[in-house]
Design goal:
Elements: H1 2-44, E1 49-58, H2 72-86, H3 89-99, H4 107-120, E2 122-128, E3 134-145, H5 148-205, H6 214-262, H7 268-289, H8 295-313, H9 328-407, E4 413-418, H10 431-456, H11 463-470, H12 484-515
Antiparallel strand pairs: 1-3, 1-4, 2-3
């Protein structure tokens, strides 16, 4: 086992030695260039200093029951918004012009480069505790510059600008929110009032025709129908009574005219006595047929009484054959007929009014479902607008409260926990890391290039490989001859590698000068 291991290591060493012999002229210039370039970076890169300040978002100094504490998402959004505000071109231009940063960059294109350099030199990141926990309420503002005092002054200015912009933006945001909510409240209030007036007008115009009035409408309809039936019955009875009175009047008129004609040549007292006797006989007949309250009985009694008064006072006059006489019975009948005609006319008008009212109530009851749908639509619109108005009102009150807190500086606001200080030690560049990277690259090129070139070569590497591949026995190995062609090829490879190394080195030097 040890022999095989020793043999393998020996074979590997032989292969590496052969690879180094073949490709050392290529890897030496490249590895040397990389090593020198790493050293140049270590020496040539200028020191820069970083000043930083620690800023803490102080919670609102009001109970969380009154003002809701901001969520982590809100804090992130606010921090990002402020970061973008600080890194805005206008703010960076003011600070740059104030401290005359990057004076070597002039002109429009130089100004753009300076702005990019300035922006890349600023860092706003959440604070990470020693345990690795990221704290969203605390973040670090950092600025780097070759001049330690300049780094301090710019960091201080950026910190103050950050705090000022935070308060100003918060006030502007609250003011804008209040103005927006107030304008929206005015619009929604107008819509609410218009919808409320529309609903009131609809209820007023359709009073009695709405579902809420259904029971009243049905009760009125039943009452009107009952009243119409009663009135119609009274109208029929009055018409029958009128026809009876007119017939009675006509009969009485004929009898009175006949009696007056028959006694026109006699004494007035005798004619009246005969009429009185006849009426008394008629009364006796009516009394047997009807009750004392019957209209005919009452009428006959009144006629008898009137004739008796006339006989006592001598009120019957005679003018011979041309005498015109209206008995008290006819006068009474005319009066009753006239009263009945007035009552009948009144009942007909009442019936007409009742029928019109019944028809209107029936139409209103039939139309109530449609009216209900219209009213529900208006109420639904009213409720939606009212809910929107209440939400806006609540939002405006919250915004007003937040604005008051911002004005009195009792809202959540940024505080400087650690103000910036003038840095003493440079923050970079980290020359140990640069040198380590250069040294590692030097070793990789120095060792890896020969191995890679030897592995990628398609020729046979040793006698056993040739014997295994071709199936023939190798009698001996002739080493490479140092011919003129071989020397020429090696020189050409060396020159190309040296040229590449020189270009690489001077390219790195140019980068160093550009960074400086």
């Amino acid at each position: 086992m040890d022999d095989e291991s020793t043999l393998n290591i020996s074979d590997l060493y032989s292969l590496f030695r052969e690879a180094w012999r073949r490709y050392s002229h290529i890897c030496l210039p490249l590895s040397a260039s990389v090593f020198l370039l790493g050293a140049a970076f270590c020496i040539g890169l200028p020191d820069y200093y970083s000043a930083n300040s620690l800023i803490y978002l102080e919670p609102a100094r009001v109970s969380s029951k009154v003002v809701e504490a901001p969520s982590n998402e809100m804090l992130n959004e606010r921090l990002e918004a402020l970061r973008q505000t600080i890194l805005a071109r206008q703010n960076l231009r003011e600070v740059r012009e104030r401290f005359k940063l990057f004076p070597e960059d002039k002109g429009p294109s130089g100004s753009e480069r300076a702005m990019e350099k300035f922006k890349n030199a600023i860092s706003v990141v959440p604070y990470v505790s020693k345990t690795g926990e990221k704290r969203l309420h605390t973040f670090r503002l950092e600025f780097s510059n070759p001049d330690p005092k300049m780094a301090f002054e710019v960091t201080k200015a950026l910190t103050n600008l950050f705090i000022e912009r935070s308060i100003l933006d918060r006030r502007t945001e609250m003011k804008g929110t209040e103005d927006f909510l107030e304008s929206r409240l005015i619009e929604v209030r107008k819509k609410l009032e218009a919808t409320e007036n529309e609903m009131q007008k609809f209820v007023s115009d359709n009073f009695g025709h709405l579902p809420d009035h259904l029971d009243q409408a049905v009760a009125r309809l039943e009452s009107d129908q009952t009243q119409l039936a009663t009135s119609s019955e009274m109208l029929r009875a009055n018409r029958t009574r009128l026809a009876h009175l007119e017939t009675e009047r006509a009969d009485l008129k004929r009898r009175d005219v006949g009696a007056i004609s028959a006694t026109s040549s006699s004494e007035p007292g005798e004619a009246s006595q005969e009429t009185l006797a006849r009426l008394e006989t008629q009364l006796a007949v009516l009394t047997e047929q009807y009750t004392p309250l019957h209209p005919d009985v009452i009428t006959t009694k009144k006629r008898i009484e009137a004739i008796r008064k006339q006989l006592r006072s001598g009120g019957i006059s005679s003018s011979g054959s041309g005498t015109k006489y209206d008995s008290p019975g006819i006068v009474r009948l005319d009066r009753e007929i006239k009263e009945l005609q007035i009552e009948i006319s009144s009942l007909e008008g009442e019936n007409k009014r009742l029928r019109s009212g019944i028809e209107e109530l029936q139409n209103a009851i039939e139309a109530m479902p449609l009216k209900e749908q219209e009213l529900l639509k208006i109420k639904r619109d009213y409720n939606l607008i009212k809910q929107s108005y209440e939400r806006l009102l609540e939002a405006r009150e919250d915004a007003s409260l937040q604005s008051s807190l911002v004005q009195t500086q009792k809202d959540a606001q940024f505080k400087v926990v650690e103000p910036p200080e003038v840095p003493v030690n440079p923050a970079g560049p980290n020359r140990l890391v640069i040198f380590s990277v250069g040294l590692l690259a030097f070793i990789l090129i120095l060792v890896g290039t020969p191995i890679a070139g030897f592995a990628l070569n398609g020729g046979f590497k040793h006698a056993e490989e040739l014997s295994d591949q071709m199936g023939i026995k190798v009698l001996g190995v002739i080493p490479p001859l140092n011919t003129l062609q071989q020397r020429t090829v090696r020189k050409l490879h060396f020159l190309v590698a040296s040229a590449v190394a020189i270009v690489l080195f001077f390219g790195g030097v140019v980068v160093i000068f550009a960074i400086r």
